[in-house]
Amino acid sequence: MANRKPLAQRAAEGILDYIRTNDMKPGDRLPTEQELTQLLEVGRGTVREAVQSLASRNILEVRQGAGTFLSDKNGIMEDPLGLSLEPESQKMALDMMDVRLMIEPEIAFKAALHATPEQVQALLDQCSRVEKLIKANKPYREEDALFHKLIGECTGNLVVSRLVPLVTSSVVLNVDVTRDRYRDQTVICHRQVAQAVARHDPETARRAMIMHLHILRSGISDDMTTPLND
Amino acid sequence: MANRKPLAQRAAEGILDYIRTNDMKPGDRLPTEQELTQLLEVGRGTVREAVQSLASRNILEVRQGAGTFLSDKNGIMEDPLGLSLEPESQKMALDMMDVRLMIEPEIAFKAALHATPEQVQALLDQCSRVEKLIKANKPYREEDALFHKLIGECTGNLVVSRLVPLVTSSVVLNVDVTRDRYRDQTVICHRQVAQAVARHDPETARRAMIMHLHILRSGISDDMTTPLND
Lengths: 230, 230
Prior knowledge:
The structure is a homodimer. Chain A has helices spanning 5-21, 33-40, 44-56, 90-114, 117-135, 141-154, 158-168, 180-198, 202-218; strands at 60-63, 67-70. Chain A is mainly α. The first copy, chain A, has 2 domains: 2-70, Arc Repressor Mutant, subunit A (Orthogonal Bundle), CATH 1.10.10.10; 86-229, Four Helix Bundle (Hemerythrin (Met), subunit A). A two-stranded antiparallel ribbon of chain A has the order 1-2. In chain A, helix 2 crosses helix 3 (44-56) and helix 4 runs parallel beside helix 8 (180-198). The longest helix of chain A is centred in the middle third of the chain and has 25 residues, at 90-114. The N and C termini of chain A lie far apart (66 Å). The A-B interface holds A 16, 19-20, 56-59, 73-87, 91-92, 95-96, 98-99, 102-103, 106-107, 110, 157-160, 162-163, 166-167, 172 and B 16, 19-20, 56-59, 73-87, 91-92, 95-96, 98-99, 102-103, 106-107, 110, 157-160, 162-163, 166-167, 172.
């Protein structure tokens, strides 16, 4: 068993190579176990071990009876920063917001520079989707995170689009930063960001994002008094 | 088996709670399986399953015969951004550098504001360590990544210190950005950052980090001609 491991690791690398070479996308189906056995020139047990290890890394998804697919999770782990090791706290929520303030205004700037027409359309659609949920007083955290993810994708930066979900859909957001009085502000700021990206106005996109995040931040901290606190 | 899973998940949550409540650090030893069975009021199999799942998330480390410990990996997964799904390329290396340019100058700024005397000492020591390796013409990538991680820790921001390793010790750095002609520049810039942090001079820390990263970036891209390219 001990000397099987490097073999399974090499098989996993082989599968990753296959995914990259064939430019496979989430949801695409992998060759069958038997085909992989031939492609990688290893035994069935090794293929199974390799597939298991890639599934545990959220790269593959094994659907019983249907086959093995590229996971929608895109290889991104649940809680990849290991934040669940830290106690949930106001400090953690503020720390996360400070990280978002470092990266998301620059991301909005780059999004306005590089967004394709299709990306702009997807962003505007998502903006409307969040808006509707907020106006209907429904939970909107997930759709909100997707809005921010789409802005990341508009940058065309491969790392950014994978980084944004880490700081928006994070466990620490269980701290409630979406109290009622911030909902209207979120509608306004989202719309400003989306429209600035749509008309390729990077400065405004950045400013709107800074404003959005600072309003959210002021909902966690008492260190600034804003008109919203009246 | 299907309805065992929520139980094991709750047991895993219980272990996380225990870790947080007792403020455990990497390397600390967890209670024995039997103690956990009593603490969590579940069966041995459930405890084992919970420990397994936390080990696969790099939160725990099971050392045969010695017990279960909090992992040094701090819950951070190998390749947490799923970048191994993307082909290695110049674009990926530039994208990563652009993300570093978004966050690391601000991190250097905050490090200079908040570093404790102990953190400053650790940073200066690590600076010397990298310097020695570079001067001896030895591989220094890992110690270099640790230097940048220590700057992240100087900020006191819990998210930052977990985020920096993701962008410095990443798989994409297999693209060689540490060619000879950048080694001397790295020595100079690192020293400038470390000294600015040491004297709590945030503006200079930020400028030195911007310079450092732009010099590295110019080693990947041809879009700027610098005196170094002569």
